[in-house]
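re: that chain from earlier
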Amino acid sequence: MTYRSSSALMTQSTPAWIVLAHLLRPQGRKGEVLAELFTDFPERFEDQKRVFLAAPGFDGEEAEARPAEVAAFWLPVGKNEGRVVLQFAGIDTISDAESIAGLDVLVPREERVRLDDESVYISELIGCTVYDGPLPVGVVEEVQFAMSADGARRLDDAAPLLAVRSLEGDEILIPFAKAFLVAVDTEAKRIDMVLPQGLIDINRMVGGGDANNEDQKR
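^ sequence. v structure.
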């Protein structure tokens, strides 16, 4: 089973939107915007000119989102490797770019790239119940990605962390790693895993606060 990136913050029902990127800040003098990339298919911006902009977590109708047209894009190198620079039609100045910083770049769910049977979109994991063997652990509320030490780029080789709300109300961070994964059924909203003994207790965030074991923080 492999995974495909999408937004870490989605509604717990089946998402109506797929998040392609999160706009960070201006990158240039002509309205270009640096963005965190949440898709493994950046080339889709060649054909996917029509997108929508909205605040993170948006799950409204198309009329409530801001339509936008991708005029150009490129993948930077160096410290911003793994991100994308986007230029939108009508966003021509630094001030224009600042006005959309912080928004997500979205497409309707039906326009997403189709995956093979061995892959799953990260956004579809939100709202799934995680099972450790036959025992329910909790519901996935968020998916977190490991970042470089300076926070500048995502570490694609590191497994994402499922932030799971346990039956007791605590948050548990569970690596979405192939070694632990048995099956994913997004239609049934179920993730079956076999976790190492003690992992749940070590990665439990009591009451949503500090972890029991500080050394386990990423």
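The radius of gyration is 18 Å.
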